[in-house]
Amino acid sequence: MRRLLRRLGRASRGGLAFVGRLARLQWSLARVVFTPSRHHLRLIAKLTLTQARFSGVQAAPLVAALGLIIGAVSILQFVAILSGIADELIGKVLVTIIVREMGPLITAVLVIGRSGTAITTELGTMQLEGELEALRAYRIDPVAFVILPRVLGMVLAMFGLLVLFDVTGLIGGSMLAVTVKDLSAILLRSRMAAALSDADFILSGLKAVLFGQTIAMLSCYFGLQVRRSPTELPQAVTKAVVASLTGVFFCDALLVAGHYFL
Fold first, then answer.
1. Is the separation of the CB atoms in 93 and 74 below 8 Å?
2. Which site in 146, 163, 197, 244 is 20 to 30 Å from 98, CA atoms measured?
3. Is the separation of the CB atoms in 70 and 102 below 8 Å?
4. Structural contact between residues 47 and 149, judged by C-beta atoms closer than 8 angstroms
5. How far apart are CA 228 and CA 230, in angstroms?
6. How far is CA 65 from each of CA 93, 123, 126, 227, rounded to the nearest angstrom?
């Protein structure tokens, strides 16, 4: 019993320490955002666009291909179940699966695996090589010029990729539905438009912002925890991936619950 209590105590202390350090990093980032006159905005904007290009533009072909595939597979899965009434519900099914649920989550998982791991590895390497300490020695704030551009770039990339996935997913599902069910493309498009609501656009925008910030902040945090040896890098990447997935699914659950029950 005592051993169990000690383990619970250590886990609780570790969890509280993690939350405290992450909150401190978030507070440092907020101070930079609300005091922009102290920093070189043009350089920050350039670094932000560089991150957005890597996380968003370079990942666009993969996201578009997956969107087409997921949209087509969704219709294949539901076409038998909706036999006879699919003509009326297929537009709503596509919007519900792609726009409300699958699009944000699959896009977030792709961003975590591709860009989140890269950010963690990059910041961990900078820590080991003393680059961040060198910036501080020259009175350059690493939060402003290293972390902030990555967070902003990730949010921009997440928003763009989410829109791309939704569009290609709806296109892929529509093409297969028109082919398999012999539906009118114009009629299907009008039904999808009717199924979309303002709440869907607001929810997608909130998910893009929250998912992008969550992934970037956790990736940066675990990269900054690398201290002594290159062997810490894969451990930091693993922790960042697990924490990012947990954070994304937790945010998604909160937003969906708020959308349906509030």
1. yes
2. 244
3. yes
4. yes
5. 7
6. 20, 30, 34, 39
